[in-house]
């Protein structure tokens, strides 16, 4: 990924921020506070630009590495009795 060339922050910081936003669905302002607690001063608008710019390419790469699932699957059912029913 040469998309990080010229970025003011290291690639690892950008990837961590985008992953954290997508995985845990926090707001940009909350993510700004989380990163500030880790010593990274970044504005919420910058986080928004990172997610818009890098999330689609990260998602596309993750989809290509995803293992195929089996053709058949089964779901187990559990019954719990409540008041005799």
From TrEMBL:
InterPro entries: IS_Transposase (IPR052183). PANTHER family: BLL1675 PROTEIN (PTHR35528:SF3). This is Transposase.
């Amino acid at each position: 990924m040469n998309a990080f060339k010229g970025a003011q922050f290291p690639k690892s910081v950008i990837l961590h921020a985008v992953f954290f936003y997508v995985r845990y669905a926090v707001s940009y302002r909350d993510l700004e506070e989380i990163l500030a607690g880790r010593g990274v001063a970044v504005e919420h608008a910058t986080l928004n630009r990172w997610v818009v710019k890098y999330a689609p390419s990260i998602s596309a790469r993750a989809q290509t590495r995803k293992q195929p699932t089996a053709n058949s699957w089964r779901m187990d059912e559990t019954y719990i009795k409540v008041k005799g029913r």
